[in-house]
Sequence to fold (240 residues):
Amino acid sequence: MSHQETAMHRTRIKICGITREEDLRAAVALGADALGFVFYPKSPRNVTPEQAALLCAALPPYVSAVALFVNPTLGEVRAVAQRMPLSLIQFHGDETMDACAAIAAAVARPYVRAFRVRPDTTAGELLEYERANRAASPWFSGVLLDTYVDAYGGAGKVFDWSLIPKELAPRVVLSGGLNVQNATDAVVRVRPFAVDISSGVEAQKGIKDARKLAEFIGAVRAADATISSETSHERITDPR
Ligand SMILES: O=C(O)c1ccccc1N[C@@H]1O[C@H](COP(=O)(O)O)[C@@H](O)[C@H]1O
Fold:
């Protein structure tokens, strides 16, 4: 196989809970694909639409701005969508499927919907969740898997990745307790479309640590390199 035919695996990376311009610039410089802004007043990472708009002024083209909400009203989402260059909504609460679809249609933005995985979550449940949401709205972009905890998210807790069905993994955003130590293992084992991290790259709540950001992104890219070399090896040994 020639060099040009070797497909490089590239896991998309979202850094969530941006509250400072220097963190945004560091994440962008390191190659993050998306940055998350939390609009949930109970979160230590909460920002106002005006703060997010100011932060996004430093965002270059082709890097997505994601707005995270927990059980928002349409008015709250609209206020954000009108003020910042919003690429994607992340619904991370107990919103119904129909509420997500209606809000996304009203503001004309795609969305991901968080499924908070419990120890007794089944593969069938996850597949059906994705199928039903996809059928419910053309604005549905994918499922984000997080760990079920009493709070809504950003808790740094891992769930059992073996619960994710193999056929769903290439379409999911994997989150929940990712960090510098487990990132390579997570990506090599699960092979998600994207990873999303918040607390694992923080120096303190709401403040990112530039070194952890660099190490986390490096760990994901190391996993990508492993997957790419496995894939090209499979092609060489089985050229079909
Ligand atoms: O980041 C938050 O403060 C937050 C608040 C409410 C709901 C979700 C939140 N963040 C999301 O939680 C997951 C897991 O985060 P962590 O890496 O375990 O800290 C992630 O998808 C964040 O986007």
